[in-house]
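Hi support team,

I'm filing this because I wasn't sure whether my run with glutathione finished correctly. The job status page said complete, but I'd like someone to confirm that the output block is well-formed before I use it downstream. Pasting the exact inputs I used:
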Amino acid sequence: MSLEIVSSNKSCGGWHKRYRHRSSTLSCDMQFAVYLPPQAEQGARLPVLYWLSGLTCTDENFMQKAGAQKLAAELGLVIVAPDTSPRGAEVPGDPEGAWDFGLGAGFYVNASQEPWARHYRMHDYVVHELPALIEANFPVSDKRGISGHSMGGHGALVCALRNPGRYQSLSAFAPISNPSQCPWGEKALGRYLGEDRSRWREWDACALLAEATERLPILVDQGDRDDFLAKQLKPEALQAAAKAAGHPLTLRLQPGYDHSYYFIASFIDDHLRHHAAALRNA
Ligand SMILES: N[C@@H](CCC(=O)N[C@@H](CS)C(=O)NCC(=O)O)C(=O)O
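And here is everything the job wrote out:
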């Protein structure tokens, strides 16, 4: 698998780089971003935090808006941000051109329904193909954390809960906590996986928590002025599922904050520290 460099910017003593590659999982060309802290040039093999962005995003939103580089440089944490869906002229999008399904909205599942099944396999891309690429091409260890925002928060929870042992740290910002019970999730899961709702459970963090064999502590931040809170995000469902399963969850409701990257930038340091501490001790 060859990587083509797209851009390179020095940042906080390290490097922000974007790459293009052919994805065999998604059957299309993909771009991703990686932040390499200064320690990457000093011979160390560093832990990696995978960041999954939300609806409409690419690899760029988090890297440009979250302000994560300064502390990542201090902590010696590599950050990898993939795109949020397969891309390209051959990839079908939302039939009505909506922003909450299709391009920019892969929901980090493996689709089983046509015409989505050929390209929309973001779970396998994020969990398997991308880490293999990162671990073959960059000075990283096999210690992995995962986090994300909104659709990407759902993705982080589901990727970790479905793959015990694969990640050593987990967090989320304003995740879509119970996708089988909210309009964004019902639309996406119904199309990607089909209308048989019993097949949605394996892609819903609340259902997965009940059966998890690993109890990785979860940190979640959620703004209480988030316009999507009640209808789409439902953190109370995640809290109830964690409580019922005895799963360690720290859910922080942050007064006055909305759904934007202004909110993420306000609390990203706590998440980076949460990941760095767990990955250091893993
Ligand atoms: N495009 C939608 C909003 C979608 C949205 O809020 N996306 C979030 C993730 S769910 C995001 O991160 N947007 C990109 C950004 O803020 O940079 C709208 O205009 O209402």
